[in-house]
Amino acid sequence: MPIFIDRRLNPKDKSLGNRQRFLRRAREELKRSIRDKVRAGGIAELDREHVVPIPRKGTGEPTFGDDKESGRRQHILPGNRTFSSGDLIPKPGGGGGYGSAAGTTESEDDFRFVLSREEVLDLFFEDLELPDLVKLNLKQVLSFKPRRAGFAASGAPTNINVGRTMRNSHGRRIALRRPKQAELDAIARQIAELEAKPASALVRERIAALREALDRLERRRKRIAYVDPVDIRFNRFDPQPLPNANAVMFCLMDVSGSMGEREKDLAKRFFVLLHLFLTRRYERTDIVFIRHTHLAKEVDEHTFFYHTESGGTVVSTALEEMHRIIEQRYPVAEWNIYAAQASDGDNFAGDSERCIELLDRKLMRLCQYFAYVEIIDERESHIFGATENGTSLWRAYNAVDGKWPNFQMRRIAAPADIYPVFRQLFARQPDLRKSA
Amino acid sequence: MVSQARKSELLFSGSDWNFAKLARVYDEIEALGLEKLGLDIYPVQMEVISSEQMLDAYSSVGMPLMYRHWSFGKRFLYDELLYRKGARGLAHELVINSSPCIVYLMEENTMALQALVIAHAALGHNHFFKNNHLFRQWTDAGGILSYLDFAKSYIARCEERHGLTAVEAILDSAHALMEQGVFRYRRPPKLSSEQQREGLRERLEYEERSFNDLLRTLPPSPGKSKPEATDEILAERKKSLKLPEENLLYFLEKNSLVLEPWQREIIRIVRIIAQYFYPQQQTQVMNEGCATFVHYTLMNTLFDRCRISEGAMLEILRNHSNAVFQPAYDDPRYSRINPYALGLDMMQDIQRISTAPTAEDRDWFPDIAGRGDWRDTLLDAWANHRDESFVRQYLSPTLIRKWRLFMLADSADEPHYEVASIHNERGYAKIRSALAQSYDVGASRPDIQVIDVDLLGDRRLRLQHTVKNGIMLEGASRDATLRHIRNLWGYEVSMVALDAETGAMLSERSTKEI
C-alpha cells in the first residue's frame, strides 16, 4: 500500500512570486522596446496602443551554445524512403539548417504584451518629472471647495436641513408623548355633546372633569413644542483644499525665414512631446502658442506650425508677448508656468541683451521652468555639440543659464536628439531650486 | 492462465477514481511488476494535484521545492500560454527521483490513466532511478528534498538580507553557467546533512574573515625584482589551483576574489542542482524507454488476465501510442527522435532478440541472442547503461531498418547535405555509432575549461574552448555569458577557441572588448 497525499487543497500559485519577478524584469524590456519604437517611428506613434512582443528568449538567459552556422555535424533522422548513400540534398534557403528537420530548432511563440495608450505613455515618461511641481503645491493651497460633511447642530439658517430636523422633532414628540390634535378635538366634541344635554349634577361633573383633562392636554401641548431648537440640524460643509494642478505651457517659436521646414519640424516634435508630457501630469493644461518674426503674436496651433510668414527676427518681442499674456490670464499664484522656446539662434543685433533683461527681471521670476532649445544644422552639431560658442542668442542665454537654475538650454540637430535632450531637460533634478 | 483469467474480476470499472481504487490498482500493479519484471523500487508516495499545480511543478524544473527565480515564472507563463491555447497538453504525471519516490497524479485523469501513470512512473521510472548506476552514484535520492528545502529557504533569507536584485544577479550568472557547472568524470560528494552544511558554511565564513593568501597584493619590495613567469612557476600555479578545471561554477565558487560567502553558497546551490540533473540528461531514452516498456508490458498483462476492461485498455493504448508516436523526418510534426519511441522499441527488440533471434541477430548480438532470459538482459541494461552506451550496444540492424534511419553529413560551408549512410549493410555500424554519439552529453556540449589565471598579476581568468568539428560558439550568447563570468570573477575574463585536432587558435575574446 503506497502513501497517498491529497495535495489538491494545497495553496495554488506556488509560482506567483516567480511570475512577479519575471514581469518586473519584462517591464524593463518593455520600456526599452517602447523607447526604441518611438525613436524610430516618430512622436505621433507615442499616442497609440502598442503590441510589444517579447521573445521567449527576450529576457535573456544566455549560455554557451553552438553556432549553427559553423562546423561539421551528423544528423540521424528516421523515415528515409528515397535516399541512398552519397545523395546530395540542397539546404533550404540560406543555410538555416534543415529547418526543424535537423532537430535543432523548435518554433517558439513570443509573449505579446498589449499596452494601452496610457501604459505606453506611463512607461515612456516613467522617470520624468517637471521640476518644482510638488513644492509649489505644498506651499500654496489657494482655493477651497466646500464639500458636504454630515450635519451640525449649529449653523446659518440657510443651511437648515428640513428633513433631518423634522425627523428629530417627530421622534421627540413620540418620545415625550405630545398630545395629538385629534385627542383634543375628541374631548372638545364630548364637552359640546354634554353641554347640549339638559344640565344635571352628573353632567356638570363630567363636563368639569373633561375640561380639566382638556386643559391639562393643552398645557402639555404648549410645553412640548412641535419643533424644538434641539431638533434643528444644519448641513455641514467642510472646506476642501483644491490642489493647484494647473499648468500653462508657452511655446515660443521663431518663424523667421531662417527657420526652414526641418527646423520647424524638429521644434514641433519637441513641443508635441512636451505637451503630451504636461497633459499626462496635470489635470488641466493650457498651451499658448506664440510665434514671432520681428513681431510676436499669439496664434492657434495650426497657424503656429503651418502658417508661412517671414520677416526679420526680434526674439524679445516673443518674451514681451509672453509676459503680457501671463499678466492678463495666468496669475502666477494659480498656474505653474512653463515655457519652451525653439529657435535657430539668429537674432537682431542688440536684441539679445534685451532678452537677457526680460528674462532676468521678469520672466524667470514667474516661470517654473524655461527651456531653450536651439536647432542647429546637422553639420554644425559636431562643432557646437559641447562648446559654449554659438549664436548671439545662445551666448546671451548662457548668462541667464548660469544665474537661474530653472533655466535650461540644449541644442538639437536631428530627430533622434529630441528625446534624449527632452529627458535631460526634464529629468528629476532634486537640487533644482528657484532662487529668490 | 485462461481459467484463472475467467475467474478474476475487473480491477476497476468506470472512469472515476477514488483512493480505494487507486490503492487496489497500485498494489496489483506493484505485485505484478515485481513478479513479472523483477523490478526493484523505492517506496512510493503518490500525491494528487490539480492541473494548475502541475503547471507550477512543471515550471520549477519539475521539483516540488525550488527557490524563487524569474526564469521559472517565465517558464510558467509560457507553458500556461501553450496550455491555454491548446497547443500542448500537460503531462499526465511527474515523478521525482527521491526516496520515497514521489509521483504526481493529476486529479483530472481518468482511472485508466491513473493506472497507466502508476505503472509508468511509480514502477518504471522508480525502478530506473533506483537501479541505474548513474543515479546510484551521482544523485542522492534520500537527501535531495531536504537539500532543496535548505536551498529555498537559504536563498529566501539572502533575498531578505541582501535584496532581490543582488540575489537575482548572482542567480542569473550562475544559471548561465549551469551546463558548465557539473563534474563529468569525478563523482560529486554525497549531499551533506543540514548540520554538516551549517558547519561548512561557518568555516567558509571564518576563512573569508581571516587572512586570504590569494588576496596578497602588496607591491614587491624594491630590492627584489618581480619573479619571472617561468614555466616552473606557471606549472606550480596551475597545480595549486588544480587547473585545468572544467567545472566553471566550482572554480568560481572556490577561487573568485570578489564573492561574498553567501554568494558562494548560492553558486554552490545552483551547481549541486545542475549536478543532480546531469544523469537525467544522459539517460532520457533509457529512462523513458524503461518506464514505457514497463507500463506497456504490465498493462497488457493485466488485460490478458481480464483485470481491466476493453474500454479502459483502449484508452490506455491511445495514450500509449500518442506517447510513442514518431513522425518521419519530412513530417511537419517532426522535431527530434522521440526518446519514448526509441527506448521502447529498443527494449522490445532486446526481448525479441532474446527469444526469437534471426541469423543476423546472432551475428550482431552473440551474447544475448536466443538466450531467452530477456528479463535479465533488460534489468542489466537498465542498471548499467546510459543512452550513449545503450544505443551503441543494443541498436540492432532490424530496428535501423524498421525506423529507416539515415545519416546526413552537414558541413556549414557546403550548400547541401550529404546522405552519408542509410539503413543498409554498410551503414548499420555508422548509424549506430553516430546516434550513440549524439546522446553523449559530454561530447555534444561545448568543452570549456579554465586553463590559467594570474592571481598576482592582472588576475585575468583565461578560459579555453576546445573546438570540435569546427563548431564555434554562437557569438551574442557567448559574449553575454562571458559577461556573467566576469560578474562572478570580478576581473577580466578571456576565452580562446582552439581547434581540437590541429591546436590552431581560431578566435580569442575578452570581456574587455565586449
TrEMBL record, chain B:
InterPro entries membership: Spore_V_R, SpoVR-like_C, SpoVR_N, Ycgb-like
Superkingdom of origin organism: Bacteria
Domain SpoVR protein-like N-terminal as annotated: residue spans: 16-442
Record's keyword annotation contains Plastid: no
Keywords, ordered alphabetically: Plasmid
SpoVR-like C-terminal domain span: 446-499
Protein name per Swiss-Prot or TrEMBL: Mll9636 protein
Organism: Mesorhizobium japonicum (strain LMG 29417 / CECT 9101 / MAFF 303099)
